[in-house]
Amino acid sequence: MTYEDVVQVSDPVERAALADSLMWADHPRRLELRTVRGIALREALDSGLAPEDVARRLVVTAADLNWMAAPAAPAAA
Q1: Cβ atoms within 10 Å, residue 73
Q2: What is the pTM of this model?
Q3: Residues 6 or more apart whose Cβ sits within 8 Å of residue 17
Q4: I want to staple 27 with a disulfide (CB 3.0 to 4.6 A). Which of 15, 22, 40, 51 is the partner?
């Protein structure tokens, strides 16, 4: 699966899960996938999905989910 395939997935939780999976596979666009994952998770949570349900689908804890959904810090100059 490519980065472009991931961003086309309409379900935000599935998109986040795919991005996360590719990140662990040492994909060349890992930082971009992290951004996609975070945006997708915020989209899922903002739509009203329960954090526990989203965390369960990604096989992480609710605390992990909060960290994963947080916007990435800007890079140091």
Answers
A1: 6
A2: 0.87
A3: 57, 58
A4: 22
Q: What does the DSSP assignment read for the chain?
A: --HHHHHT-SSHHHHHHHHHHHHHTT-TTHHHHHHHHHHHHHHHHHTT--HHHHHHHHT--HHHHHHHHSPPPPPP-
Q: What is the pLDDT of residues 4-63, one digit of tens each?
A: 999 999 999 999 999 999 998 888 999 999 999 999 999 999 999 999 999 999 999 988
Give one word for 43, left, alpha or beta, with left for phi > 0 and alpha for psi -120 to 50: alpha
Amino acid at 49: L
Count other C-beta atoms under 10 Å from residue 55's C-beta.
Answer: 19
